[in-house]
Amino acid sequence: QVQLVESGGGSVQAGGSLRLTCAVSGFYYERYCMGWFRQAPGKEREGVAGIGSDGSTVYSDSVKGRFTISQDFAKTNLYLEMNSLKPEDAAMYYCAAKFVLYGNCAGRLTQGAFDYWGRGTAVTVSS
Q1: What span, in angstroms and rounded, lies between the C-alpha atoms of 2 and 85?
Q2: How far is CA 48 from the centre of its chain?
Q3: What span, in angstroms and rounded, lies between the C-alpha atoms of 24 and 96?
Q4: Which of 1, 29, 79, 118 is deepest in the core (most CB within 10 A)?
Q5: What is the rounded average pLDDT of the residues 119-126?
């Protein structure tokens, strides 16, 4: 029932920008946290950014100031605006969702706590 579908990945030069989109369906919780995670070959999956139903956001230190997470008014799409991309940002990017009690992501992104996941969209960055 719940489906998350990512799009917008691609190849970009270092210093460039990309905007990822996650189309959300079947997820109608009043309070939630939705986030973006990424995983590069040979590395563990890491949290990148999250946004709560109350509009609050949380970012990993490595992307803070460069990436921006947002959602549309109807809450049907989740976005990740990525600026000043670095080769280290290359990875498969996944969106995820979970319901929460207080409408925020509690200032952290823990992979195991998210219930629903998309299949991912690939991002490559060349020097």
Answers
A1: 31
A2: 6
A3: 10
A4: 118
A5: 98
pLDDT at 1: 87
Determine the Cα–Cα distance for residues 9 and 19; give it in Å rounded to an integer.
8
Distance CA 104, CA 58 (A): 9
What tokens does 44 get? 């563990």
Tell me the two tokens of residue 101.
Answer: 């009690």
Give the tens place of pLDDT for each residue, 26-43. Answer: 988 889 999 999 999 999
Residue with tokens 């070959």: 41
